[in-house]
What does this fold into?
Amino acid sequence: MQIEQLIAKMTLAEKIGQMSQFNGMDGEISEEFKEKIRKGLVGSVLNEVNLHKINEIQRIAVEESRLGIPLLIGRDVIHGFKTILPIPLGQAASFNPEIIKEGARMAAIEARSSGINWTFAPMIDITRDPRWGRIAECLGEDPFLTAVLGPAMVSGFQGDLGSKGNIAACAKHFAAYGAAEGGRDYNTVTVPENELRDVYLPPFKACVDNDVATFMSAFNEINGVPATGNEFLTRQILRDEWNYKGFVVSDYESVTQQVVHGHTPNNKAAAAQAVKAGVDMEMVSTSYADHIEELLSEGVITQQQIDDSVRAILNVKFRLGLFSNAQTDPSNFPEWVNDEHRAVAKNAALQSLVLLKNDKNILPLRSGLKDIAVIGPLADAPHDQLGTWVFDGDKKHSVTPLQAIKEQTSGKAVVHFAKGLENSRSKDTSGFSEALEAAKRSDIILLFLGEEAILSGESHCRADINLPGAQELLAAELAATGKPFVTVILAGRPLTIRNIVNTTDAVIYAWHPGTMAGPAISDILFGKEIPSGKLPVTFPTHVGQIPMYYAHKNTGKPATSKSWEKIDDIPADAAQLSIGNTSHYLDEGFEPLFPFGYGLSYTMFDYSNLKLVETRVKMDNPVQISVDVKNSGDYDAVEVAQLYVRDLYADRTRPVRELKGFRRVFIRKGETLNIQFELKSQDLAFHNRQMKKVTEPGQFQVWIGGNSNAELTAFFELE
Ligand code: NOJ
It folds into this structure.
């Protein structure tokens, strides 16, 4: 085939060129870089978004290099290109693979019209630490949910890869990057192999099964070996066990960072280690270009290893259709940020909003409000509502909550706006009096708090995940007015918001909702749309509880609300007891503020009639489970019904609950829907002490409900 013919013709230098990715060009393309392309020494370029320059370097590669091999043009198109979707964590709250696919599709079309043909997404790292800045970019804490949503994002970006508007996706970061100690970015990861295989790897395997074109190796070390240079991960698991045929790119300079990690003495050894591990392309650092030739002549690496890498890279270029046409004609594409794309972004934002509290059904807002106070540093923050990883979005397209609320209420109510604080970090309270004035003049307070975009994202971790600045103080002073009070939080991570939840009547968690934040939030506030988002991650009450996630182990002494010995109830001079103790914090107990999967609606859903077709099931037969969900409230609405399972006794202990299925269903008010789930024996498998993936016979418990604390339960026995 064509690729083999090409490989047969390539010089070693040209092969190494394919394995090398260079950073984009500020200003004009230098003669030196053009010459590199002509010589076939460049396989890919990242961070170049100027279409004119991209077309020019593609032209040079195709017309002026010896073999005419086109370039991969990579860019972090993480949650939209010009039209910005909610941050991925927000998108995950939709529990809706279709919405994620649609968003990625829209982003791919906009990016491809700019000459970009490869994105570094989806980020499918599991994390259980909201301090980690990159939690914003991932799809939450759960392997099952991420293994559904990650591949959906891949499908949206890639389509069939070859046709117009498709770009190659990249499953990143391989692996366990989200398990950084202390939630500090790039930090050390120690994960036992069974945990790695049961928790961190399933989303990656699901993306392999969905034909993701590329992988990215992670910055972190894992169990003492940097992920970029880790034969166990990228050779044994990815290639040998999963038979992956795409290619692996390193992270930014992560090949040479093996020296900094203390794993290899110099860049040459780092290059050797990465090539041997099967990292096919080096991002930005140049250890491949500098050392592969020597390493090959010394017999440290093999010709076969190099050819395999080149083959995999060329294959993606072929699949993308770049050999037929590497030029981009923007007139073949729709305009950026067009109405259709804004509708996609708005829909994703709508489905990402999570209603956390709604006392006395204060929401949706009643009609007839005459004066509305819109307050807070995030009410009219067109840049910050976009969130992290927005290299190409422009705040001029943002519609803010303030703008949308004004529009929605125009002619009916007066909006009194006061920022209260200059930005989310501000401690200067001089704006409070204006905010209080606005509140006093109004029938209701709509307060927009949260985090600025720059407080989450790569390397933007926080040790304290309370609302920054004087925001809590602002909320407390507003609460003291006694006015009805709704808080909307825009943030890149779960924040510890107990005080806010206690002082306001309703709370909506909006994440960073993107370009269309305003219209989505306003439609939910005024009841044009009904909230349906569910938390893709546990919300701790206090940072000291972290790691806190729903799929934890039981321990030998699990806590209950009765066993929680509260710090303030302990008498002075109390004697220490050695019996009856349980696993909890004296001060913060053992429960989260909101559990995984949680989210309210304006209506009510009642779950009943949980039934198993058989309660003793043969290993090869599916377990069939059904439940009735009644919409017993006043609105037609969507519910995300969730199925959780526990394997009660196992060779290695299993989590107290694991998500094994979910359904987003629309139910009219007053109607009842029967929902069915099916579990196959492989859905119940885990890695035992021999590191074999097994499903053990025995007792299982299931729950179905609207969040991970669902109470409706049943048992079955697998034989
Ligand atoms: C570093 C990040 O870790 C990675 O996710 C990203 O794709 C690259 N930089 C390229 O920008």
Remarks:
- The mean pLDDT is 98.
- The longest strand covers residues 637-647.
- The chain has 20 helices and 26 strands.
- Residues 303-319 form the longest helix (17 residues).
